[in-house]
């Protein structure tokens, strides 16, 4: 697995099989699907997922957390094309 540190920045993207894992400061987003096949490739993907989730859990356990993350603030801006 590349140097993907959960919750560190707003730019890292990791790919495992058909999954796209996007890093954010307040969340890690996982999109896509994956088949963990009973072969060496499936084992490699399973290990990569295990390593990623262990890093996410360790990061979350190492800090105080709110009961629920507050929704992002929305701002309305003027349409520059009007």
Description:
There is one protein chain. This protein is an alpha+beta fold. Helices cover 27% and strands 17% of the residues. A hairpin with a 2-residue loop joins strand 1 and strand 2. The chain is extended and about 55 Å long. The protein starts with 12 loop residues before the first strand and ends in a 21-residue tail after the last helix.
Question: Strands, helices and their partners?
Answer:
Elements: E1 13-16, E2 19-23, E3 28-32, H1 40-61
Antiparallel strand pairs: 1-2, 2-3
* Gap between N and C termini: 47 Å
- SS class: alpha+beta
Mean pLDDT: 93
- Total E-strand runs: 3
Radius of gyration: 17 Å
* Anisotropy-based shape: extended
Largest sheet: 3 strands, antiparallel
Cross-sheet strand order for the largest sheet: 1-2-3
Query: Helical percent range?
Result: 25-40%
Order of helices and strands: EEEH
List the total number of helices: 1
Please indicate the percent range of residues in DSSP E strands (runs of 2 or more). 15-25%
User: Can you tell me the residue ranges where pLDDT is under 50 for at least 5 consecutive residues?
Assistant: none
């Amino acid at each position: 697995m590349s140097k993907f540190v959960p919750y560190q920045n707003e730019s890292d993207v990791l790919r495992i099989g058909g999954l796209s894992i996007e890093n954010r400061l307040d969340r890690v987003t996982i999109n896509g699907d994956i088949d963990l096949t009973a072969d060496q490739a499936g084992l490699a993907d399973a290990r990569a997922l295990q390593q990623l989730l262990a890093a996410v859990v360790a990061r979350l356990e190492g800090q105080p957390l709110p009961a629920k993350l507050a929704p992002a603030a929305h701002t309305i801006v003027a349409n520059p094309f009007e």
